[in-house]
Design goal:
This protein has about 350 residues and is of the alpha/beta class. It contains 13 helices and 13 strands.
């Protein structure tokens, strides 16, 4: 079968869907249409045929989006796929509508609802309407958390028999293996993600300031590219000696191994892969009590949940963690690993995805 994958980032496809693509390549020819964010050659090495397009994943520029729709339509006509698989909002909507028009079977992946669903207003109504059009004939719509699925059903975007709930993209338990828990008097917190307000970076920095003010021996290590301009504030806190900004890193595992606790106070997620990867590595996780984050943590057992956008609550659970003895922290990490093995094994997620595609 000739399968076309549409996504807004080659790095996202490679990082989180590599194992699924390898499985699909066993019996299928895979084409990928995506912007080049550094992993196109890696996808080609896997055996995929990759075509680059320009895509502004966050912007709402009608002229740019019209050009994107034209590019997607042209490529779909040239490739003539027998199945289209889409990831992220613009490929989901535009790719879904084009596939529907051309009567090509297609599968949609809801990897998160994005900022537009956080506020009532014209934009949310418009996106719901576009999703209704794009998903109407989808053979399957995959969700990474039950709350996102419920929103689609409540808004009558899809029918219940179209929905398939997965445990996110899953986590590769061989790549992210249980590592020895680190010693040290200074608690090393780790954040991995795009540096932007919606990932809770403001709340995290404020909570850290409160910890330092209290005399808590703690550090914050941040990995990820700037999505918004935090350079000056990062430099200010680096000079104070408690923040370490490492920029974007191709391999995050050595940073996870050195950390005592991973923290992700995000505002919204489909399923936060970094929570899964850190838990699988045996690190306690502090994250937001929201869909897409809370599933990764057994509160009080493998980590702690904090209310989203709440500096005081985040500070409270982070300080609570710093008071735990070594043995309790280590056990938290072990419990997190068990939780990943039971519910988030990528091999299981891939099997369920393939079953959904071929149903």
């Amino acid at each position: 079968m000739r399968i076309l994958i549409l996504a807004n980032s080659s790095s996202g496809v490679y990082s989180f869907r590599k194992e699924l693509i390898e499985e699909l390549l066993r019996k299928n020819e895979i084409f990928i249409v995506t912007p080049d964010s550094g992993k196109c050659e890696c996808l080609r090495i896997l055996g995929c045929k990759v075509i680059n397009v320009s895509m502004d994943r966050r912007g709402i520029n009608p002229l740019k989006d019209i050009k994107l729709i034209q590019q997607l339509y042209l490529n779909i006509q040239i490739i003539q796929p027998e199945l289209v698989i889409t990831y992220t909002i613009k490929p989901n909507i535009y790719g879904g509508i084009i596939s529907r028009i051309l009567k090509i079977p297609y599968a949609v992946n809801i990897t998160g609802l994005g900022t537009a669903f956080q506020k009532e207003g014209f934009l949310k109504k418009a996106i719901i309407k576009m999703y209704k059009i794009s998903c109407k004939k989808a053979k399957v719509v995959f969700f990474e958390n039950s709350a996102n699925k419920d929103i689609f059903l409540e808004n009558k975007i899809i029918l219940s028999d179209q929905a398939c709930l997965l445990n996110g993209a899953g986590v590769n338990l061989d790549k992210y293996f249980l590592t020895e828990y680190p010693q040290g008097e200074i608690t090393k917190f780790l954040f991995i993600g795009r540096v932007m307000a919606e990932k809770g970076i403001n709340e995290l920095l404020e909570a850290m300031k409160l910890l330092i003010k209290d005399g808590v021996k703690a550090e914050l290590h941040i990995l990820g590219a700037y999505e918004e301009d935090y350079r000056d504030i990062m430099k200010e806190y680096e000079k104070k000696g408690w923040l370490y900004y490492h920029g974007f890193q191709k391999d995050i595992r050595e940073f996870i191994q050195k950390a005592h606790c991973f923290v992700l106070p995000s505002w919204h997620e489909g399923m936060a892969n970094t929570n899964l990867e850190c838990a699988a590595s045996g690190r306690p996780v502090i994250t937001s009590n929201i869909p897409g984050c809370r599933e990764a943590v057994i509160d009080g057992i493998s980590g702690y949940l904090a209310e989203s956008k709440d500096v005081d609550d985040l500070y409270y659970v982070m300080k609570k963690f710093t008071k735990l003895p070594y043995e309790e922290r280590e056990q938290m990490g072990i419990e997190g690993r068990k939780h990943m093995e039971e519910y988030f094994d990528k091999k299981i997620v891939i099997r369920e995805t393939v079953e959904g595609l071929y149903k």
